[in-house]
Amino acid sequence: MYTGSFNTKIVITDNWLVEISKIKNKVLIIDSNIRLHYNEMLTPLLINTRFFEFNASESNKNLNEITKILDFFQTENLNRSSYVICIGGGITTDIGAFTASIYKRGCRLILIPTTLLGMVDASIGGKTAINYNGIKNCIGTFYSAEKVIISSVFLNTLPKSEYQTGMVEVVKMSFLHDSRLAEILNQKWDIINLVKEAINTKLSVCEQDIQDRSTRRLLNLGHTFGHVLESISNFEISHGTAVAIGIRIAAKFSYRNGFISESDYKAVNLRLDRFEFPSRFPAKYCHELEINGIGYLKQDKKAGKKIRLVLFNNGMKLFIHETQKFNDLIASIKEFSDG
Q1: What is the pTM assigned to this prediction?
Q2: Architecture label for domain 160-334
């Protein structure tokens, strides 16, 4: 079990190809979309480097793909001194880091996230994971990368939907008590400085609680409800959409149970509305929610006999609330359908 501290070096550079070309003993795990869109830029690297091309989707973040990557590692004779370099969004860095963490009890790891979500969240903090039997991130490890390389090149061509997904995680972290993100978001900001502040915010929380036993759990705001939405839709509801709606559900649940005032409840939604985050999910998924929703809640990684929710308290501060009122939680989720 990983019990050490974080030693991840965060490098912000657009010369990342030069950075990794110096590494001799390496393989790449690369998102097929990244290879397609940046083929000209990547060709010199791929000609001279062994790589595994991964079709990044939540449905492919599974044990079957892990087996394929492990076969690739074995064919390429990787050892514990070999570098595994993952280039792609959060799905690619999740599955790549997980595989690197288990092969021969751990290879050296570098992450090059290509989405805003990957830069501010998935690649930061040492969590790795894959989905299992429809449960989001059910199997995983704690395994920090030696280096995370951030390049604005990828942000310049990021689709609006991917950009918004990353912004959901940034806005989520703005609700943390010691975060400067809420203040920064109210000013004129550029994306790289925002990414830097989001990374600093997440690292400051993770370094206090590496294995997600206490304060780090506050980063799960919106995720307990969000993961249910992803599961009932077979991941057709994107992670960003699910978490944004999950934050709204958490705020409504907090208000309904007397933890926050009406003004605080409105303030949470106003912050989300400012970035035009979604507020409803398709009603066609309500049937699956009614049948399997409680089961998905009980499979949540943060759950014991009770479900642990990140909720809002006075002044929009976050806290952990435990409940066994499963039917109330399902009803709270259903309330945010568009039906």
Answers
A1: 0.93
A2: Up-down Bundle (1.20)
